[in-house]
Amino acid sequence: MQKPQGEVTRGTTAPNRLRRIDRWIAATQRDALRSGERPLAIDLGYGASPVTAVELYTRLRAVSPKLEVVGIEIEPERVAAGQAFLERSGGAFPGLSFRRGGFELPVPQPPVLVRAFNVLRQYEEAAAWKVWDELRARLDPAGVLVEGTCDEIGRRAVWVTLGAEGPRTITFAAHLPALERPSDLAERLPKTLIHRNIPGERVHALLTDFDRCWAVAAPQSVFGPRARWIAAVTLLAQTWPVLAHPHYGGRTRWRLGEVTLPWAAVDPRGA
What we know:
- The structure is a single chain.
- This protein is α/β, with parallel strands linked by helices.
- The protein folds into two domains: 19-164, 3-Layer(aba) Sandwich (Rossmann fold); 176-261, no CATH class.
- 31% of the residues lie in helices and 18% in strands.
- Strands 3-2-1-4-5-6-7-8 form an eight-stranded mixed sheet, sandwiched between helices.
- Strand 4, helix 5 (125-137) and strand 5 form a beta-alpha-beta unit.
- Helix 1 (19-28) runs parallel beside helix 3.
- It is globular and about 55 Å long.
- The protein starts with 18 loop residues before the first helix and ends in a 9-residue tail after the last strand.
- This is Class I SAM-dependent methyltransferase.
């Protein structure tokens, strides 16, 4: 076998850490998940425990019963832990497997989904852009890459969805009762953006305006943080291209503490 591409991550993980992301994928990426006779999804860099791969399998199979899921890790010990889990399960997870690998994605067919979370934090920005390109090139034509970062318990997260043609959307998500201001999500920006949160950059302007909308929406706090978030997003949509279609946005997803915009709104390489 060729040497896996990539670097070993810290491996930090926990049950339900990626629940918010999984539910968003299940709700918004159904066409991709159901494409083909035996669609394949990958949990890339799942960490020291196989729990997030198992959760991805469970949540996505609910919307795509034929979906197969492969957990990929560089560390042989982590792969062995996943395989040991399957042995103990007694065949309770048909279609779930674990294998050693990295960004080369050692799977027999192009995946319809690659979920890569908390994988690129240790890379330089230029390397992160390169990994995006490499992973996009390995997708099924209908596939998507969902790459991002969340905190240790999944209460704050930012992720980018990419297709074969490039980045499509960016999503900000938070556990609203614990959120002081939207710009607190800046520390969870993907590696391609985290060093761009400075004056003059689009993502900085977005977060600055989001904080302003959050402040204006403060009176809605008497109805709870969810009402304040919805009011702030509604204000933000007056000047930023918030995706309001129910598929990505609108009150259904806003109520969950999420907001999605086209990637072009924050693209540091854009015109």
